[in-house]
Amino acid sequence: MEHLINQRVKNIEISGIRKFFNLVSHMEDLISFTIGQPDFPTPEHVKLAGIEAIKEDFTSYTHNAGTIELRKAACDFVEKKYDLHYKPESEVIVTMGASEAIDIAFRTILTEGAEVILPGPIYPGYEPIIRMMGAIPVHVDIRANHFRFTLELIKPYITEKTRCIVLPYPSNPTGVSLSEVELREMAAFFRDKDIFILADEIYSELTFDKPHKSIASFLKEKTIVINGLSKSHSMTGWRIGFLFAPENIAKHILKVHQYNVSCANSIAQKAAYEALTAGMDDAITMKKEYLARREYVYQRLISMGLAVVKPDGAFYFFVKIPSSVPLNSFDFALTLVQKAKVAVVPGSAFSDYGEGYFRLSFACSMETLKQGLDRMEQFLSNEKKITLT
C-alpha cells in the first residue's frame, strides 16, 4: 500500500538532527553535544502545579485556544518582556509546542506555488511543512554575512509569489540574533507588502548581550509570532507553545489548530500558567550558566583554530570544519564519534548551506563540555598530523 502514500510525504525525511542522534545514541562513553534541550530540570514550582492539576482532575478539554487564564498570562508575559500587545480573547493560541504553532501557521497562510524565504543554514523544521503544502522554500545564503539574515540579503529573492519570510532568532543552529535597527528596517520595508512575517522567537528568553526585540513590536499587522516554554523553562516534554497574531489572522489559524489537536494538554496548561506568572524570570538562572558556558566554549574553539561566530543567544555554536579535514559534515561528525566519542550535528542537517559546518550544543554541564572539547581538540590535532604526513 506504500504506493498510495502522499508523494509529498514520501519526499521528506526525518530531521537530520534526530537522524544523527539516533544513529549514535547507543554508543558507550559518548559525550553528546547534539540535542537542543536544556539540561536543567523544569522548575520545581512548575512541576508542582502540574501535579496539582492532576489531583484536581483538571484533565478535560479546554477552550480550543487554551484556558483564558493562560492566554492572559501569555499576553502579560510578552507585554512585559517584549512590549508586545495582544488580546488574550482572540490573538493568542496555546499550541502543542512551538512546532505545532509553525505547522498551523504555514497550513493557514500557504497555497500551492507560494514562496517562503528562509535563511540558510536554518533549523530543519520549516521546509518539510512548506513542501507538504505545495509551497516552495527559497533559501538565502547568510554564511558570508556572519549568519545575519538582513533585509539587503532578502530583497533580491522577493517575487510576486513570495508569501512569507521566516525570521528565526536567536537562530538555531547559529545562535545569531537581529538588532533593533535591522528589525526596524525590515518592518518599514514590508509594511506595504502582502507578505507575512513568521517570527520564531522560541529562544527569546535566552539572549546574552542585549534584550530580545520582536519585529511584531514594529509590524504586528503582518507578523505571526511563535514562542513557547521548551527553552525558557526547560519544559520540552510538556509541549506548550504559543502563537500570537492579529485577530484577523489568528481566527483562521485557530480553525486549523482545532481540527489538528482540539486543544493543548490541560495539565501542561496549568503548569504553563505557573511558569508565566510566578516563574516569569525563571530563565535568568539558566541564562547566567549558559553565558559562562558560551564564553568557555568560544575560547576553547578559538584556541583550536576553529572559525566560529559567537552566538547572541540560544545554546549553540555553528562551527566551520577546518580545511585540513577533507570530510563532508556528515562524515566528519561520524568520524568524530568513532574516533573521539564526541557527537555533534552535521551542518548538512540545516540545509545545503550548512554543509562544511557542525552544530555544537552547550546545553550540558561545564564538566561535560571540558571533557568533550578535550577529546575534540585531541582528535583535530591527530587529524592535522595525519594530513601533514
Automatic annotation (TrEMBL):
<dbReference type="InterPro" id="IPR004839">
    <property type="entry name" value="Aminotransferase_I/II_large"/>
</dbReference>
<dbReference type="InterPro" id="IPR050596">
    <property type="entry name" value="AspAT/PAT-like"/>
</dbReference>
<dbReference type="GO" id="GO:0030170">
    <property type="term" value="F:pyridoxal phosphate binding"/>
</dbReference>
<protein>
    <recommendedName>
        <fullName>Aminotransferase</fullName>
        <ecNumber>2.6.1.-</ecNumber>
    </recommendedName>
</protein>
<comment type="similarity">
    <text>Belongs to the class-I pyridoxal-phosphate-dependent aminotransferase family.</text>
</comment>
<dbReference type="InterPro" id="IPR015424">
    <property type="entry name" value="PyrdxlP-dep_Trfase"/>
</dbReference>
<feature type="domain" description="Aminotransferase class I/classII large">
    <location>
        <begin position="29"/>
        <end position="375"/>
    </location>
</feature>
<keyword id="KW-0032">Aminotransferase</keyword>
<dbReference type="GO" id="GO:0006520">
    <property type="term" value="P:amino acid metabolic process"/>
</dbReference>
<keyword id="KW-0663">Pyridoxal phosphate</keyword>
<dbReference type="Pfam" id="PF00155">
    <property type="entry name" value="Aminotran_1_2"/>
</dbReference>
<dbReference type="GO" id="GO:0008483">
    <property type="term" value="F:transaminase activity"/>
</dbReference>
<dbReference type="InterPro" id="IPR015422">
    <property type="entry name" value="PyrdxlP-dep_Trfase_small"/>
</dbReference>
<dbReference type="InterPro" id="IPR015421">
    <property type="entry name" value="PyrdxlP-dep_Trfase_major"/>
</dbReference>
<keyword id="KW-0808">Transferase</keyword>
<dbReference type="InterPro" id="IPR004838">
    <property type="entry name" value="NHTrfase_class1_PyrdxlP-BS"/>
</dbReference>
